[in-house]
Design brief:
The protein has 244 residues and is an alpha/beta fold. It is 26% helix and 23% strand. It has five helices and twelve strands. A four-stranded parallel beta sheet has the order 6-2-1-10. A three-stranded antiparallel beta sheet has the order 3-5-4, with helices on one face. A three-stranded antiparallel beta sheet has the order 7-8-9. Strand 7 and strand 8 form a beta hairpin. The N and C termini lie far apart (43 Å).
Length: 244
Amino acid sequence: MDAISSRPQDRVVVIGAGIAGLATALRLAPLPVLLLTSAPVGAAAATGWAQGGIAAALGPDDDPTLHAADTLAAAAGLGDPGVARRVTEAAPGCIVWLAELGAPFDRSDDGGFALGLEAAHGRRRIVHAGGDGTGAAVLHTLARAVEADPRITLRHARATALLRDEAGVCGVLAWEDGAPVAIPARAVVLATGGVGGLYAHTTNPLGVAGTGLALAARAGAVLRWPPGRGGARARRWSRPRASG
């Protein structure tokens, strides 16, 4: 039972404890949140392996419009202009928010963010933490903030299905301590990462195997295919495709 609400169905369940799940849980305040994770917080997340920096239009000669243009040029026709615009507009505020949480971003002599210039970017806009330790630094910062937030409850269990009623998704069916358990919720956020772990050669943790996509498809969600293409067709899968 959540400490904030006496009604478990009032909470939001977030599945996944990587950077997406942790950030979502923190940003949902003041709603009570149940963070469902099959591994210790951050332990199986791909973010901790990320050695590059984060791009954001923070410099005096930069703005999100320029950042979006560079992004779409580098995508060579595979980028979604709407997504590029929303992400680049949100990026500066996200960096400031992470810094306020304690993320140890590298700084310049004047105390501002040390901005690097990397391939495909026309301005200095790459923020690092500890040089090539950006992913781990951001992940640890978010994990500390989540563990200190009384509105967020951590629960170690593996989601196996989304529960539905006449109004839509109403919770999660999970496997916990060797038995199935139903977890009611007002909403469910899938933050389980990508599909890199399905491939023989990957830079992702092997547990990143498309779990969220499978849960969504089984619940009747429309999946976009191929990902990242602005005019892509949508494909509805009523069940996962059989292998072999």
